[in-house]
Amino acid sequence: MKKIILSAMLCGGMLLGVANSGVAHAADKLTGNTTATATVTKGDVTLDIDSAINFDPQPLSGDVNFGSQDVNYKVTDYSGDTKGYQLSAKLGDTDATRTVKIGDATLSDAAAVVASKDSNIVGENADKLSVSLEYNGIKEVKDYSTAIQWNLTKTQTEQITE
Hints:
Blueprint: H1 2-21, E1 45-49, E2 63-77, E3 85-91, E4 98-102, E5 105-106, E6 112-117, E7 123-136, E8 148-154
Antiparallel strand pairs: 1-2, 2-7, 3-6, 3-8, 4-5, 4-7
Keywords: Signal
Protein name: WxL domain-containing protein
Organism: Pediococcus pentosaceus (strain ATCC 25745 / CCUG 21536 / LMG 10740 / 183-1w)
């Protein structure tokens, strides 16, 4: 009986040794690498401008000059290209009795450049423009309104070579 038990133990040990020899152990890994990527994209360019200008009331006469008021604007530029901008304006409605000027430019239904900057900073660029209003030949007491349409254009500085 001792021989049977001893044979069984010996045989079991050999089977266990054969079974364990097929198992692989992983090596310790103590270092590693990480790649970080970052993308720079073209940002926004926005125009914020006062939505209303309120001129002081004037009495009815043949020619009514309302004077001038300032309109504030802000160009926010995160385009990555800070080479300047142009701001143009035109009238969005018609009135033959009205004259609207922004700075020295008289507005009509065609766009006129009213502000031009050769350079600007990344971020907010705030400024103001003077708007003047005059009516000629009006005969009615009422509220008169004017619609001004604004357009912002980014400019590029061009180098001239000879």
